[in-house]
User: Fold these one by one.
Assistant:
Number 1:
Amino acid sequence: MSLDTSAEARVASGLADVRARIASACARAGRDPGSVKLLAVSKRHAPEAMRAAHALGQREFGENYVQELVQKAAALADLPDLRLRLIGHLQRNKIKDVLRAAATVDTLDSIRLAQALAERASAVGVVVPVLVQVNIGDEPQKSGVAEAELPALVAAIRGMASLQLQGLLAIPPAELSPDARRPLFRRLRELAGELSLPELSIGMSDDLEVAIEEGATMVRVGTAIFGPRY
Ligand SMILES: *Cc1c(COP(=O)(O)O)cnc(C)c1O
């Protein structure tokens, strides 16, 4: 299967548009554009759309579901420097699969899950870069560690030799406007600072400017690059 030329053109213009938004947000915030990485969120888009983005220099892609991530890793195994990050919830029975296909796990949210991932990583002799997902809006249904439990989780992960903790990820409540998310982003940045964690994964298609102003080092953008999901 190959993308028709209009779909390829869509990815090209979406990617160019998002790169320009990142550059102007960085300029407004007085930040080096090199300090904000773009993670292309490719869930429920075809591997061919990822291939088109890769041809334009995009290397890191975010996937939410382990099975889909594994399938895409296989379909795109020929692409140099491709890195797939898991940005959806990880179930412990999927750890084996995720370790084979993903470069990072960005959604650790419990000591139990971290321990299970660390054990498996150590058994296969790899060190996995990870982020901790924080339930920054304190939403009862949502994944992510509660702010009060974050320091203990961070300390525990730092004690696990096969995990390399790089930072924090958060998904603010969807019903908040981008400006209403600002204090939550700011709080996450404070937490990352207190814990000496450099990476801050915040910002999506509709709020990447606010996230960059509040210190994002990685924005996770799907729709604005690839169009609507099916
Ligand atoms: C789907 C998803 C995104 C991308 O959202 P868009 O609004 O399409 O940019 C970012 N982060 C996570 C965790 C997601 O699940």
Note: Residues 2 and 119 are 39 Å apart (CA to CA).
Number 2:
Amino acid sequence: MDQRSFATRAVHAGSKVPQSSTQPKVPPIYAASVFSFSHLDLIDEVYQGESSGYVYSRIANPGPNLLEEAVASLEQSDGAIAYGSGMGAIAVSILAEVKSGDHIVATQVLYGGTYSLFHTELPKFGVNTSFVDFNNLDAVVAAIQPNTKILYVETISNPLMEVADLATLAEVAHSRDLKLYVDNTFASPLLCQPLQLGADLSIHSATKYLNGHSDVTAGILVGRHDFLKRAAAVGTTYGPTLSPFDAWLVLRGIRTIGLRMERHCANALELARYLEQHPKVTLVHYPGLESSPFKAIADRTLTGGYGGMLSFEVVGGLDGARTVIDSLKMVELVPSLAGVATTVSHPGKTSHRAIPLAEREKFGVGDGLIRVSVGIEAIDDIKADFEQALAKL
Ligand SMILES: *Cc1c(COP(=O)(O)O)cnc(C)c1O
């Protein structure tokens, strides 16, 4: 019997990791903020790298490390580093590469949070960004300055699903000693492995397809040794750490990403073809359609499909979009993407809210535009829901 006092037993009983000759089939969640050392000299051995050991979970934890190993394997890279959100990953990626006085050339159609980082936050540290049309290579080259360090692009853009020509952009970047950063969130590692096309860094909001179940916020950077070393130091200091529990959920999501992406892509292609021939739909943006101006670039940049994201314009502008969105029954209005359920969002009221209608209409984000994150349900049920909603127009 444990003779210690109640308070002592409460603190210490049941706190040792059980010994087992068998292994758990799935790695456990190491919900520990810190690790214990068996003797004093072990501290020196661990800090000097003579003995491998975890110290403190802001620096490293087995759960996030396993996730990093998995994503590095999916994209065939040297390694990866996971963070508590996609924005945490993006912020670290920039801070690891630039200093005051440096310059970034970024695509003008950026995820909203990234735009705010580049447009509003980084200038406070003396880092400025030029936003240009990455479909126009001359414009990209013309924006490069002597102090430019990074070209920043998204594999598939939001909300018009434009595909970036990563191989060509990598050549442009490297001939000028710049880094090419690619936000690969919309593509997922199944469709695109940017490092294999010459990019220096692949970034994911793991909140999206990597996790895939709309129940985690996480991010990850996939890169080469030199960069990862710097990013690890920056991340440890700034601290946007991923929790062991969330890392475990993303890793579980990854187990089915092959199957999920296959179905997301097949469903999206079929829904895009259905919408394209619908009389109330004026335009469909999906790189897998023969009619898409991005089909050729997509064919040399993406493998295994064209993604689960599409957008389309309905007749009647805002009223038309409202009628369709409010009439959908199974498909919910959700301002995010990449979960197993089909969802819609309205770019004009969410990601592009700050831009006046007249201005965003010029580049194709009018009020009749609806974005769809196509889920993995049976395609006939998805089509039927859009069919009955479009019939209300
Ligand atoms: C969601 C998203 C982000 C930001 O990721 P969070 O996990 O929300 O911080 C960045 N880029 C793209 C393309 C995204 O869709």
Note: Residues 257-276 form the longest helix (20 residues).
